[in-house]
DNA sequence: ACAATAAGTCAAAAAAAGATGACTACTAAC
DNA sequence: GTTAGTAGTCATCTTTTTTTGACTTATTGT
């Protein structure tokens, strides 16, 4: 493993940091869906064919931790939790759309 | 799990496809450098601290195969090979710059 | 009490990405 | 013919991501 101490490598392209926030199999799709309406766990699970709870949970957690989604707990009968795009999350949407147009 | 046989998973966000083309530790940086001048293997190796031949070779190969870079062999004394941004590669640059501005 | 829905967690296995070391092919200079 | 420079390849190992199965917590309905 070569446990190196000092700070080595780290490709330092500034776009890299933002790319990492949306990297992953489900994150771009989840962000795209979040534009239309607040997201819920079970509804994502139904919508994203081929996904599973763990994948959704991990993606939502990371998107929340990196500040692209905000989690809102709604204390009601069946217990609802909603995820909203943050300001930064919204800022990302047009960029994702431009990527689509290049492809 | 719900192992459905028909066509499984594949997150079908259109931006995903383009994101995959620039995914990886070195690709965004390489594209960024390609804007300034044609790229050469050994010069990339020197410029990208923390990289190695295999990483550079793999990145260049993938960027070429996906049509973002074009490889040009220059038969001269020490054998030169240059990589140029394609039209699609160029189209990606402003999008990468926008990503930086969000971060 | 028991099952169902919603929203997860934990651990482990499998697959993909990244890192490391040794080796190849061509030309050119000495 | 040995050394040096450029541009790689191949096999292996490690790390990270993704997938899979089993279990948890809370509330509602019967």
TrEMBL record, chains A, B:
InterPro entries, alphabetized: HTH_HxlR, WH-like_DNA-bd_sf, WH_DNA-bd_sf
Domain HTH hxlR-type: 13-103
Keywords on record: DNA-binding, Transcription, Transcription regulation
Pfam families associated with the record: HxlR (PF01638)
Keyword Transcription part of the UniProt annotation: yes
UniProt GO MF annotations: DNA binding
Stored SUPFAM superfamilies: Winged helix' DNA-binding domain
Protein name in UniProt: HxlR family transcriptional regulator
Organism of origin: Lacibacter cauensis
